Amino acid sequence: MKTSLRVLLVQAALIAAGACAVASASAEEVVVIAPSAPPVERFEAVPAPRVGYVWDHGHWRWDHGRYVWVAGHWQAERVGYHWVPGHWDAHGPNWHWVPGHWV
Question: How far from 18 is each of 8, 36, 52, 59, 95, CA to CA, in Å?
Fold first, then answer.
């Protein structure tokens, strides 16, 4: 069996199981796929501004077949960049996690 076909079969099996962590070509990025929409976001009081940091709001993380809340935290500011919070995107019947990043 060719290597690429093996990889596709393994990926399909993991998706069917409910979650998938697949290394990308760069071997640094992990793709997280969940089989259902995340719960409604929890309310979090945003702390007072902190010099040199931006607030990254809390979010739901897919962990071992279920969603787990991750509390918000401070991100060290990168001058000249804007923080884009992580979020879930629907792709067909599954949901993909897009990690927070600087742009």
Answer: 16, 9, 39, 19, 10
Q: For 49, which DSSP code?
A: P
Q: What distance in Å separates the CA atoms of residue 55 and residue 76, rounded to the nearest whole number?
A: 9
* Residues recorded for the chain: 103
pLDDT in tens, 51-96: 999 999 999 999 999 999 999 999 999 999 999 999 999 999 999 9
Hey, is 10 helix, strand or coil? helix
Per the CB < 8 A criterion, the answer to whether 42 and 71 are in contact is no
Reported pTM: 0.66
Residue type, 32: V
